[in-house]
Each structure stands twice: as structure tokens, then as C-alpha cells.
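Give me C-alpha cells for this 91-residue protein.
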Amino acid sequence: DDYQRKSVINHSILGKFAIRTKEWKLILSPGSGGYTFNVGNDQGAIDQGLPPLQLYNMKNDPSESNNVYKENTKKVKELLSELNEIVDNVK
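Here you go.
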């Protein structure tokens, strides 16, 4: 069997979704993830002016300390599209 997953969708205990490929992780929340560890929740992240989403290059930044969301809007759109496609095709 040559099937390989293109990506994995995660759902945190707080209800936050993320999509992960080998290299990228997009978190659909401003207040969870490595770089916001001390922020805690979404409101804390919003109060600090953090972006609404988080994108990490897992190859270069496995500790999720450098949110590259603003510099990679094309990748964000691509991952959001893939996430929506997966959700739309769940039966």
C-alpha cells in the first residue's frame, strides 16, 4: 500500500484546530501554540496584538517559536483550502 497522508488535522482540548504537513503547521487560533505559551488564551493573544492565526515551519522551527503567518499568506491560504476540502469531504 503506497498511501501516504498529505496532512493531518488536529483538534486541541480547547477546541482549536490545526492542520499539519511534513513542513508546515497552521493553527487556527491566536492563543495556542509554542510562541504564545505564556499568553495562554485567545484573548491574551489578541490583547498583545498577535495575529489571528499561527503558521510555523516545522522543519526550521520545531519549537514553534517564530510565527511566519504574515510572511507566508499564500501558504496560509493553501492550508486553509486543504483543511476546508478535507472537512467538506468527511462523510
